[in-house]
Amino acid sequence: MLSTSGDTDGSPRPRRVLPGRAGTVARLAADATSARTPPLLLVTGPGGIGRSALLAAVRETLTERGVRVLDLRLARNERDRHHALAARLAAELGTLHRTEDGRRPAHTAPVAPQPEAGRDLTAALRSAVASGETLVVLIDDLQWADTASRGTLLARIRSLTGGPVTFVCGYRTTPGGTARDRAALDRLRAAGLVRVVPLRPLCSAEVDTLVAHEVRARPSAALAARLRRDCRGVPAAVLAAVAGYRREGALRVLQRHACLTSPERPPAVPDDLPLVEHLRHLGDRPWSVAKALAVLHPLGPPAVGLIARALETDEEEVREQLELLRAEGVLWCAGGRWRFRLPLLGYALAGCLGQFERRRLSQLAVTAVWAGEAVADDHVLAEHLVTAGRFVDSRRAAGELVTRGRAALLHDGHHAVRWLRAALDLTTEPEQRAAALLLHATACCIHLRHAEAMESAWTVLSRYTGLVTSEDLFDMEAIWVVSAAGVSDTTALAALAEERWRTLPGGEGHRIVARCLALCHLERWREAVDHLTATREIWSRENDLVAAVGQVVSETGAALLGRTAALDRSVDDPTRYPLWHRGGRHRFQRLTSLARVLMQFNELDRAEALLAGHHLPSGYRPIPDRVVADSHAGHWDRALDLARTALAADTWVGELTSHTMASRELSTILAARGRLTEARAVIEQAKSVHSLLLHLLAVPESEWEQILGGRERSLQVITEALALAGERGLVVGTDELWLRRAEAELVTGDPAAARRSVAEVIRVAELTGTSRAQLCRHIGVAMMEGDRTASAEAVRLARRRNQPLELADTLQTVVRLGQADPALLREAYGLYGDLDALMRKAQLRNLMREQNISVPDRSATTSENERLLAVLVTEGLTNREMSIALGCSEKSVESRLTRLFKRAGYRSRVELASAILTGDYPVGRPG
After folding, report:
1. Using alpha carbons only, what angle is made at residue 828 by residues 822 and 832, rounded to the nearest 5 degrees?
2. Pairing of strands 337-340, 331-334
3. Which part of the chain is the HTH luxR-type domain (predicted)?
4. What is the pLDDT at residue 115?
5. DSSP at 39
6. Cα angle 187-189-192, degrees, rounded to a multiple of 5
7. Where is 431: in which H helix or E strand?
8. SS3 of 784-821
9. How many CA atoms lie within 13 A of 886 on its CB side?
10. For residues 570-588, average pLDDT
């Protein structure tokens, strides 16, 4: 392919972003027109590293500077045509001198290779040199040049030193290269005729930038990690992986971040990937070997023999092909284990296999492992069992998949569900199928796959009641109730709570606890707790599982109603539980349920101590619970990334109280960082789902109402939330609501009402005894009584609780009340800074000015103000709304926007928003 700069119609080509390459492009463009530069600049690197994109950028840069550019791209078949390159280059140089603007005529016929091509090229180059005008010749894919042309070109380049003609060539390298090429390069280097410019892989930040420009959103941590692992910084591989994810709908954009719907699943890479095409052209045998290796390489050295068996050839032939692939830079080998240098290429090749081929290869792998000829870890063998399907012994395969699914139940939900689903597809025997259904329903419920859990649980309840134990039967009933709530099927829950509970299989205790579980998910807490209390003698004697679930429901419901004694006893000694001795998921569920209730009371320290004391890894906790814990602990970036991961995978709606709490924390973080529209959307989404404890959402909702100047609406939100909690008898979280109501009532000039609200704060603190309620109590007393001792106690307690946002808010509050040293505002400012809470910092700066406290690092403040302003613009706020949020005039906002656009070079809000989406204008934490 030959062209001059620009498209054939003269229109400019769109410029693709080249992360990490801008400096290289600038240096090449400068060197290509410098008399001190060697006549040959050779851009090298493996396939997909970006040589062609780099040469295109150099061409555009030179064309913009008015430099004459001749642009060739070689095709693979030209290496077999004698003097092909020399003939084309000679003809194009001649054409270039015969046209005024340096463009080839529209219908120039391709030039056939000629024996005189070498002499013609020499003459053409002499003519170019004689003209004295700078000419840059770009040749892409020089590795495809025929031997004769390459020799002629290199010989003629020797005469170009210091002349006006420079060659800039792209050359695909392999790890070792050929001895002949290395020797030729060494001779050219020694003569000062060549400068080699090797392209390195992109670093993590550069990969992120490339992805951001491709999908108009920053990659999530999970996506970025996956691309680093699979693509090794090769730009073409990164783009192919992203295209594969998008093609199969596995990539979603949430909160300006690109997230994977299933981080464990590899992308469906298109089979026209250049790296794959390169392998196709190597021939049928290496192509077949490479595809087979893509499936079998995890088995290590035995993979060679299995490939030979699959291809019906001998092992020596397979090794020859593997060595060829290594020479081409595709593979590497250590200890007899062959691996793809680029993992993504392995996925792409596996995708090129037909269904029969894949199943046959997995059949060979499974058979070899079962026969002791190969060794595979549980994950590898399970995946081969899934793929092989009925090509192997179905009964044995199903049994092993159930075993591995059970082992992965807690720590690897994606694969546990996948393997158990495959086991169900493989077995028709009632006993084995019932066992698989039990585990599949459990795995889906634990990992928030509610629809699947509900389906499997109901299958057991409707078809296999005679094949499972009484405990397993109740387990399915409980899973069905929780999953029905997870999919917002309130009709089914209401029917169970009213009438259908009497028709459930199992004993009376089954039916009582299942009904009360449904009542709780309908927020009929008092009814559930009272019924459990009245029937304790029945359900506590049914069986261990019924007794355990009844205990959890009773403790949790009572605690939310303000009766925390039973919960406190269980937190002090969680082993007081009928299923504790069984360990496994039962201990996991016991600990996570207790920790969840503690987090609903904002008792992070007690929850973390409970889990750590019994060695439960934090990664085992459901994502919504981890979001809440990370938010309270000040790990906001991690909390946001976890939330986006769950939203992308449709596992955000977990245990419904956790969903409410996680939504509350997510909204709080977003609002504190100025992302008010997103914060509002989170609350609206939570309300649209059948969530529980919705009154807890009033805190962040009232905050962003107040930020935008809606003081009356803010108070109304709090009042409505307290009414909702009162209607349902709920006490949890009302301490903070009463305190916020008291603050609002003082502002509106109603101290009597504020005093009544503080009295409610004190009542809740005495009722629950939690440290968070005590903190609210101290602040309320300080607010109403002007008690500096209470303020000091509030600060002491906030420090002990060690929640950064809470501590910063407490410091700000006691200073605003005039009951603490204003210098504490500097500490609060630093805490907000650690959280990157741009909005909170901007609000605090106004108070610091009122208190005559200097704001540290004025240059950083200017940058933060600009970042916050950019965020608010992207959120769609009007100038008036921004002026209210920032506490300044609309004219001031207009002036700030003008300076921002001028300094950053954007002409409109749309351009600024686009730059934020791609990361060109960062609004997150610097670095």
Report:
1. 150
2. antiparallel
3. 855-920
4. 55
5. S
6. 110
7. helix 430-446
8. HHCCHHHHHHHHHHHHHHCCHHHHHHHHHHHHHCCCCC
9. 27
10. 91
pLDDT of residue 56: 93
Neighbours of 439 (CB within 10 A): 22
The pLDDT assigned to 177 comes to: 53
Residue 23 CB neighbour total at 10 angstroms: 8
Name the residue among 670, 662, 659 with its Cα closest to residue 628.
662
Beta sheet of 257-260, edge-to-edge order: 218-219, 257-260, 251-254
Binned at pLDDT 50, 70 and 90, residue 617 comes out as low
Question: What φ, ψ does residue 807 adopt, rounded to 5°?
Answer: -65, -45
User: 43 forms bridges with which residues in the sheet?
Assistant: 170, 197
Cβ neighbours, 10 Å, residue 266: 19
Q: What is the largest CA-CA distance in the chain?
A: 107
117 pLDDT tier (thresholds 50, 70, 90) = low
The DSSP symbol for 252 reads: E
Confidence of residue 105 (pLDDT cuts 50, 70, 90): very low
Buried b (16+ CB within 10 A) or exposed e, 147-161: ebbbebbbebbeebe
Select the more confidently predicted residue: 774 or 83.
774
Query: Per the structure block, which two tokens stand in for 759?
Result: 């009295």
Contacts of residue 352, defined as CB under 8 A and 6 or more positions apart, other chains included, come to 271, 276, 291
CA nearest neighbour of 737 among 884, 596, 602, 557: 602
Written as six digits, the tokens of 784 are 């109403």
Half-sphere exposure of 187 (CA within 13 A, CB side): 10
Average pLDDT of the chain is: 88
Instruction: Give Cα separations from 589 to 124, 548, 619, 620 (angstroms).
Output: 80, 11, 14, 10
Contacts of 740 (CB under 8 A, 6+ apart): 699, 702, 718
Mean pLDDT computed over 871-898: 89
Judge whether residue 106 has pLDDT over 80.
no
Q: What residues have CB less than 8 Å from 180, skipping those under 6 apart? A: none
Q: Which of 508, 499, 497 is nearest to 537 (CA)?
A: 508
Average pLDDT score over residue span 780-793: 94
Distance set, CA 740 to CA 488, 771, 832 (Å): 31, 17, 20
The H or E element containing residue 137 is: strand 135-140
pLDDT tens-digit map of 342-389: 999 999 999 999 999 999 999 999 999 999 999 999 999 999 999 999
Each as own residue / partner, the long-range contacts of residues 302-309 (CB below 8 Å, 24 or more positions apart, any chain) are: 302/368, 302/373, 302/374, 303/338, 303/374, 304/336, 304/338, 305/373, 306/361, 306/364, 306/365, 306/368, 306/374, 309/364
Tracing tokens 């999908």 back to the chain, one arrives at 215
671, amino acid identity? A
Element spanning 73, H or E? strand 68-73
How does residue 169 score in pLDDT terms, banded at 50, 70 and 90? very high
Q: What is the DSSP string of 585-639?
A: HHHHHHHHHHHHHHHHTT-HHHHHHHHHHTT--GGGS-HHHHHHHHHHHT-HHHH
In this prediction, residues 163-189 reach a mean pLDDT of: 73
Task: Look at phi and psi of residue 168 and say left if phi exceeds 0, alpha if psi is from -120 to 50, else beta.
Answer: beta
- Go through the chain and tell me how many residues it has: 927
Instruction: Report the distance separating Cα 814 and Cα 794, nearest Å.
Output: 8
Q: What is the DSSP string of 735-792?
A: HHHHHHHHHHHHHTT-HHHHHHHHHHHHHHHHHH--HHHHHHHHHHHHHHH--HHHHH
pTM for this predicted structure: 0.84
* Structure-block tokens of residue 661: 């709490």
Cβ atoms of 87 and 111 closer than 8 Å? yes
Helix (H) or strand (E) holding 841: helix 838-850
Lowest-confidence pick of 112-116, 186-190, 376-380, 586-590: 112-116
First-to-last alpha carbon distance for the chain, in angstroms, is: 42
